[in-house]
Amino acid sequence: MTYIIKKLLILLVTLFLISIVTFAAFHIIPGDPALLVLGTEATDEQIQRLHEQLGIDKPLQEQYTSWISGLFHGDMGISIKYQKSVAELLKGRLSITLAMGLMSIILILICGITIGIYSAKKDDRPILNFITMLGISVPNFYLSIIMIWLFGLVLHIFTPGKYISFKENPIQFFRYMIFPVCTISIPEISILVKYVRTAVLNESRNGYVRTARSKGNTESAILYKHILKNAIVAVIPLIGMIAGSVFSGSIIVEQIFGISGIGRLLISSVTSRDFPLTQTLVLYIAAIVVTINFFVDIIVQIIDPRIRIKS
In the predicted model, is pLDDT for residue 309 greater than 50? Predict the structure, then answer.
C-alpha cells in the first residue's frame, strides 16, 4: 500500500509540474493571441477588451489558478480560435483518438509479443532482424504516405481523407481506421519484438532453465511456464513508453489521414496560439501517459515479488 501511495503522489506531482510548464510556455513565447483573432489592424481598445474577455490581462498566477480550478469543475475555458468552449470542441474527438490509441496498443501487444517469442525461438533468422530494424527506422509520417499511396490510391481499399465515423457506419469506420492504426503500430511492434526477443534469450541462459531441462520438461513448457514468466517483467515497463509513443504519433497520423481527433486539433491550436485549447490537450495527453505508467508500475510490483521486497 505504501508503494501505491508513493507512486500516486509522484503521478499527481508530475501532472502538476506538467501543467505549470505547459501554462508558462505559452505565456513566455512572444506574440499576442488577440492579434490572431482581431488582426493586425485592431485598435488598442479592441485588443484590451479581448484581453479582458480572455482573462489574459490578469497576473499569470491568477490566470493559472483560474485555469486549474476551472478544470476541476469541468470548465476548460474558451478557445481563442474557434470561440467555443474547449469541452465542446473535445466532445467526440476524444473518443476517436482513444479508440485509435486502444486499437493500436492491442495490435502492438498481440503482434509484438507473438513475433518476439517466435523470433527468440528462431534465433538464426536474420530476415526477422532486418524487418524489425526496418520497422523501427521508418518514421510515422513516411509510413502514412506509403499506406495512403498503396492501399488508397493503388489498391483502392479506402478513400484517402474520407473519414467515416463509427455512428455513421461502424464497418467503414474500422475499415478506414485499420490503416492509421497499422501506421502507428508498426514501429512500436518492431521495438517490442526486439525487446521481447532479447528478454527471452537472456532468460533462456539462466541456470533455472538448465534445471528445468534436466528434469525432463519440453522446450515449449520451459518457454511458456518459466522463461516468459520472468521475461514479461522486463517487458511490461516498455508498455508505458509505447503508450506515450502511440498518442504522440497519433498527432501526425491523424493530420495526414484526415481523422478528426485531438491530434489535428492540437496542431491547429499550437499554430494559432490558442493556449486555452493547447494547455488542455497537452495536459490530457500527459495524464493518459502518466496514468498508464502508474498502472504499469503497480502491475510489475504485483507480478514480481522482488520489487515488493525492495520497496
Answer: no
